[in-house]
Write a structure and sequence with these properties.
Length: 297
């Protein structure tokens, strides 16, 4: 399991560890991991040797970067999957690789149209372009591999790098009153609970037979970002003012509307989203409370 310390990776590790008889090995840059390696810089032979020694049955790659300069994004999102695929082809070509892609690879979708896995890809920024490069590498690799193209994950533990986590932190700072400034909220996004994403990854690991190379993981609904903000403010009991600045995120600017077609996920994995957005937002808010406030010393 790579990227276990991240938002999606943490939930995926928890799901994998809940499987009976499964031992989960964790890889990443931090010392003390079962596999200590930085996919952005590790040589292929070194990684192949480490993978061979661990004798894994499957690999889940949740590692990646959502921010940073173009070099950092390319190292994490493009080079990382390429090195991993090359190492697996050398050391363990029979293991299954489950790699997490991103809806940013599609770019803007036509309003009212659900994006299937065969839809054209046209990322509008460096993040989406580097994620697409990683996906193309995995899809073309001579491996038992599947890319789960994840749309907008939300839920407990959402990081400040994205709007839901950042807004939850700001609402905590402001209390019930005050003014919270947000950017442009006019876009529509397909929000999916992070725990549903983790469950899809586990199903992809354990599914028998050959899987499609690319599978959308989303809720299958286009929701106004403004609605998510409203729900989060409501969960927080916020009575103050939300001021829209009109500023557009560098990562998602130019993408006004997205919704996924999730038919293939149901057919290939037996997966459907279970957790509604209201529950995702409520749990995000509860999980954002300081540990002391939740009675943990």
């Amino acid at each position: 399991m790579l990227g276990a310390r991240g938002f999606v990776g943490g939930h995926t590790v928890a799901c994998l560890r809940a499987l009976p008889g499964v031992r989960v090995l964790v890889g990443g840059r931090a010392a003390g991991n079962d596999l200590c390696a930085d996919l952005g810089s590790v040589p292929v032979p070194v990684l192949a040797s480490a993978v061979r020694e661990l004798a894994v049955d499957a690999v889940v790659n949740c590692a990646g970067a959502v921010g940073g300069d173009p070099t950092a994004l390319a190292e994490a999102n493009a080079r990382g999957p390429a090195v991993l695929c090359a190492a697996l082809a050398l050391a363990a070509p029979g293991v299954r690789l489950v790699h997490l892609g991103s809806a940013a690879e599609y770019g803007a979708g036509p309003e009212g149209v659900a994006l299937s896995e065969s839809a054209p890809v046209c990322p509008v920024g460096v993040y989406g372009a580097t994620k697409l490069a990683g996906t193309l590498t995995v899809v073309a690799a001579p491996l038992d591999a599947v890319v789960l193209r994840v749309f907008n994950p939300v839920g407990p533990g959402a990081p400040a790098a994205g709007l839901p986590g950042r807004l939850a932190a700001e609402l905590r700072r402001q209390g019930r009153d005050g003014t919270v400034r947000v950017g442009d909220l006019s876009a529509y996004r397909d929000f999916v609970d992070v725990r549903d994403v983790a469950r899809a990854a586990v199903l992809a690991v354990t599914a028998p037979g050959t899987l499609p190379r690319l599978v959308n993981v989303a809720a299958g609904r286009a929701v106004p970002v403004r609605e998510l903000v409203r729900q989060l403010a409501s969960a927080a009991g916020f009575r103050g003012a939300l001021e829209e600045s009109g500023a557009v995120s560098a990562r998602s600017g130019g993408v006004g509307w997205q919704r996924a077609d999730i038919t293939l996920a149901a057919r290939a994995l037996g997966w459907r989203p279970r957790i509604p957005l209201t529950e995702s937002v409520r749990d995000l808010w509860c999980a954002s409370a300081p540990r002391v406030a939740r009675g943990v010393s």
